[in-house]
């Protein structure tokens, strides 16, 4: 199958952390969304930047080729190439950035530099139902926790954020304390399903306004577990599901508390969730509940668009393309 020449065909590439991903967006549809993960980091309990860059270099060509093949699009049919410009690991970002630049140059087509966090939010525009501007988005990933007023595709105002750990980081660090391998967030979610969320209480830092803090919670979990282990070395093993459910409840409670406050403050009732932690089942349920209580229209992303993917880079690229917001070939990736 060959693509219709009149269509806008966007190839998108994402390599900001430990996933090499490529997607094709054409005629209002994602035709391919390919992700290669990197198992190499598991043994280190976190992402090792240099190993991530190397794995991206190995994966990028096959991932792009598979995406084109799956979409049935020839590279000569591409209209533009979108890539994640930042934020992320600088060495990792450089892989997609140089790949996208050389391919765009060779094909003589425009380049679209995409902000990773904006793309997480714009994933809501891949399918129906799409939120209406302005909407409020709780953006929660491994590196960010932000309350964002989304006024237009590329007009995003951050009205609250974490002053220390991100929500995903809080999940991953709590998991590490509990001996759960990286990334711990999804496993905490799984174990929590059969645990009692009220079994243990942890203290957390309460900040004024709309900001978050998760480092106090992490310390509270650590000290509590250490104290219990002194009496019962099997404490974690004996209580893993209850511990996970209680940790998850503490994180989600904090996230929801400020989100509700932000909705009241701004008067916005279009509420969305974005980023890796939006895959969390407890957060998704709590948002749906709060939506009913507060009369919100809630937008919860499909699972494949929660954690890092290139479909979100493609949709952001498509809207940049429509606005003619092209990236010069000299432009550099940014870590922060
Ligand atoms: O957006 P993302 O894929 O990458 C970044 O941009 O950081 O987010 C990754 C984060 C990790 O911290 C991971 O543990 C967390 O999202 N995460 C989850 C779940 N799935 C992914 N946290 C809690 N529950 C989940 N189901
Ligand atoms: Zn992300």
Characterization of the model:
- With 336 residues, the protein is an alpha/beta fold.
- 43% of the residues lie in helices and 18% in strands.
- It has 9 helices and 10 strands.
- The chain has helices at residues 49-71, 90-107, 116-122, 167-177, 184-192, 215-231, 235-266, 281-294, 311-323; strands spanning 9-14, 20-26, 29-36, 80-86, 111-115, 135-140, 145-152, 155-161, 270-274, 297-299.
- The strands form 2 sheets. The protein has a 5-stranded mixed beta sheet with strand order 3-2-1-4-5, sandwiched between helices.
- Strand 6 and strand 7 form a beta hairpin.
- The longest helix has 32 residues, at 235-266.
- The chain is globular.
- The mean pLDDT is 96.
- Bound molecules: 5'-O-[(R)-(carboxyoxy)(hydroxy)phosphoryl]adenosine and zinc ion.
- Zinc ion (ZN) binds at residues 116, 120, 141, 275-276, 308.
Write the layout of secondary structure elements.
Elements: E1 9-14, E2 20-26, E3 29-36, H1 49-71, E4 80-86, H2 90-107, E5 111-115, H3 116-122, E6 135-140, E7 145-152, E8 155-161, H4 167-177, H5 184-192, H6 215-231, H7 235-266, E9 270-274, H8 281-294, E10 297-299, H9 311-323
Parallel strand pairs: 1-4, 4-5, 6-9, 9-10
Antiparallel strand pairs: 1-2, 2-3, 6-7, 7-8
Helix pairs in contact: 1-2, 3-9, 4-5, 4-6, 4-7, 5-7, 6-7, 7-8
Bound molecules: 5'-O-[(R)-(carboxyoxy)(hydroxy)phosphoryl]adenosine and zinc ion.
The site of zinc ion has 6 residues, from helix 3.
């Amino acid at each position: 199958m060959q693509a219709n020449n009149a269509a806008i065909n966007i190839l998108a590439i994402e390599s900001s952390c430990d996933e090499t991903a490529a997607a094709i967006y054409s005629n209002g549809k994602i035709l391919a969304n390919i992700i290669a993960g990197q198992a190499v980091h598991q043994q280190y309990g976190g992402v090792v930047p240099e190993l991530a860059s190397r794995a991206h270099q190995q994966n990028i060509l096959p991932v792009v080729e598979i995406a084109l093949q799956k979409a049935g699009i020839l590279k000569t049919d591409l209209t533009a190439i979108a890539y994640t410009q930042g934020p992320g690991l600088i060495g990792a970002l450089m892989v997609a950035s140089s790949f996208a630049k050389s391919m765009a140059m060779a094909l003589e087509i425009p380049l679209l530099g995409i902000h990773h966090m904006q793309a997480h939010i714009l994933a809501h525009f891949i399918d129906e139902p799409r939120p209406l501007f302005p909407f409020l988005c709780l953006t929660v990933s491994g590196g960010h926790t932000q309350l964002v007023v989304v006024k237009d595709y590329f007009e995003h105002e951050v009205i609250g954020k974490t002053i220390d750990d991100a929500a995903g980081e809080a999940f991953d660090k709590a998991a590490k304390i509990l001996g759960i391998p990286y990334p711990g967030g999804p496993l905490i979610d799984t174990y929590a399903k059969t645990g009692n969320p009220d079994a243990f209480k942890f203290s957390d830092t309460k900040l004024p306004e709309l900001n978050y803090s998760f480092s106090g919670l992490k310390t509270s979990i650590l000290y509590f577990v250490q104290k219990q282990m002194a009496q019962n070395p099997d404490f974690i093993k004996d209580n893993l599901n209850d511990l996970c459910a209680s940790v998850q409840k503490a994180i989600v409670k904090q996230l929801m508390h400020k989100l509700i406050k932000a909705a009241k403050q701004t008067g916005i009732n279009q509420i969305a969730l974005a980023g890796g932690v939006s895959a969390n089942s407890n957060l998704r349920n709590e948002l749906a509940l709060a939506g009913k209580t507060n009369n919100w229209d809630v937008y919860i992303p499909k699972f494949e668009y929660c954690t890092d993917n290139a479909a979100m880079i493609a949709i952001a690229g498509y809207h940049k393309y429509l606005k003619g917001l092209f990236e010069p070939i000299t432009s550099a990736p940014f870590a922060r």
